[in-house]
Each structure stands twice: as C-alpha cells, then as structure tokens.
Amino acid sequence: LRNVNDQDEYRDLKVALNTLSFSVDNQRDLFDLVAGCLHLGQLQFQAVFSGEGEGSAVASDSGSRAALQAATVLLGLDEAELVKTLTVRTIVARDDTYEKKLTQIQASDARDALAKAIYGRIFDWIVRTINLSIQVDASQVRANIGVLDIFGFECFQQNSFEQLCINYTNETLQQQFNQYIFKMEQVEYQAEKIEWSFIEFPDNQDCLDLIENKVNGILAMVDDECRLPSSSDERLASRMYKALESHSRFMASAPQRRDNKFCVKHYAGPVVYCTITFVDKNKDEVPKEATSLLQRTSVSLLQQLFTEFSAA
C-alpha cells in the first residue's frame, strides 16, 4: 500500500503489545500462529481414488508441499498427523470406531475449519488479555468513552453465508445506534418534558427478527437443517420459501428459487444470497482428533488455548 511502511507498522504493533502487557513469549507465539494459519490456507488437496472410493491427499505441487512444511513448523505439529487430521475422519458409532476418507472438497473444508478455529481462539485470547490489561477498579472511573465500530456492508455478485453473517452484524449495529441515539434519547426527552422535534428514523428490528428469530429466523433454520442426518442446501431454501414468504423483508422470485437464492431487504439495500454451501459453512466444526492434535502442539500458547476450550 502507498504511504504504508511495514517496518513502522510492525514497530507500532510491538509497542502496543508491550503496553498492553503481552509477554515476549506470547508475542512470539502469536506471530507464529497467525503465520501458520496463513500457510495452512495455502494448502491444496488432490483427489485419490481406490477400491474404497474417493479420498484425498495433499497436492503434489511445490507450493502445497512448502505450505504444509511451514504450517507444521509454525503451529508446532507433526506433519503426518496434521495430514491425517485433514484427510481422514474418525467415526464413532456405538461401540464401533472406524475411519472414513475425506474427499478433496471435504479435506479443503476441514483445512478451513481448522484455520478458523485457531484464529478464533487467538482473537478471543487477545480480547481477554486487553480487557485484563485495561481493567481498573470501578471507583476510579471518572468517565467512559463508547466506540461504535461499523462493519463494511457487503453486497457482491455472489453472496453466501459469510455475507449474511457480516450484514446481520451490520443490522445489529444499526439497531444499537437507533436504540441509543434515537429511541432512548427521545424517551428521555419526553420524561423530562423537553420540547424538541420528533426525529423519524427507519427501524430495522423487523429485519433482525427475520434473521435471528429463535423459531422461524433464517439462522435458526440453518441450524435446524445442520442437525438433520441428510441435510441439504436445497431443502433449507425450500423451507425458507415456505416459512418466510409473507415476511416484508424477505423476497424470492421464481428465477431465484430455481437457483436456491433469496433476497433480504436490509436497511442499506436488498442483497441476494445463494443457499448453496450454507449448511457446510454453518457446521464448520473442528473434529475431536483435530482438537486432540492441537492440544499436543509444541507451541505453548496454542496448547493453552485448546486445552482451556476443551475444558470449558
């Protein structure tokens, strides 16, 4: 980027981490783990066919081999165990345990789920550490500063589950803004009998209800579909069409229904989503063997994060 010096940015980051009481060892582990996630994301797979059907293996190109080696070193893992964790799933059925080979697509999904899990634990740990560092006794607080961080609203040519989650966050932040700036302030004005001109503002609570309702909300339907043994994106779309057809914020034209798409009329404008891959992306679970592998890492911070998570 123009006018951005990486050395200066890194130096500023180090100063901030030191100021917020991140230890030298934890800083080293933090940088290694983030770099490890980036290399893990570069790992590609290829299909392998045998008498048992389709399986997968790490792609034979030099880029994937280099990414695998870098990821295992930075994450403190055994290379063979990492590959097995990403390409084989252990199935437990009653008293029987067996292994199932993952397809090329399933292995890629397993890679993404593992990287997201590591990154998610790191993010939560950073927030906890910062909160502990700036925590003071309530009696010493003289004033508060509130910061409302607005996400970038996303609307692409193809919108999937990630865009729905991001735009849902935007809807929530918009409601937070409405609640504190308009609703609560004007109620306070009424209580104190202050003369003012009532401010009309678009209330997006109905859009939030469409997405987050515990029974008939879009996210609840996605969760319900994921719990079914034979879940599918197509069945999820069909259920939404039937349950949400009359909702003022929901729309699905005949062409959109043929493509398993639907439209949400957000406060910022309409966005068309495609349900294909919704189910797999929402599952996004880290299998037990992956958690066990990360608990045996040689990187102390990563071991700590996944040991604490398992015990929680």
Largest sheet: 3 strands, antiparallel
Tertiary shape = globular
| CA distance, first residue to last residue | 41 Å
- Please work out how many helical segments DSSP would assign: 13
**Rounded radius of gyration (Å):** 24 Å
Series of secondary-structure elements, N-terminal to C-terminal = HHEEHHEEHHHHHEHEEHHH
Low-confidence segments:
none
Provide mean pLDDT, rounded.
91
* Strand order, largest beta sheet: 5-6-7
How many beta strands in the DSSP annotation? 7
**Helix percent band:** 55-70%
Strand content: 5-15%
Structural class: alpha+beta
Overview features:
single chain; 312 residues; alpha+beta; 3-stranded antiparallel beta sheet; two-stranded antiparallel ribbon; 13 helices
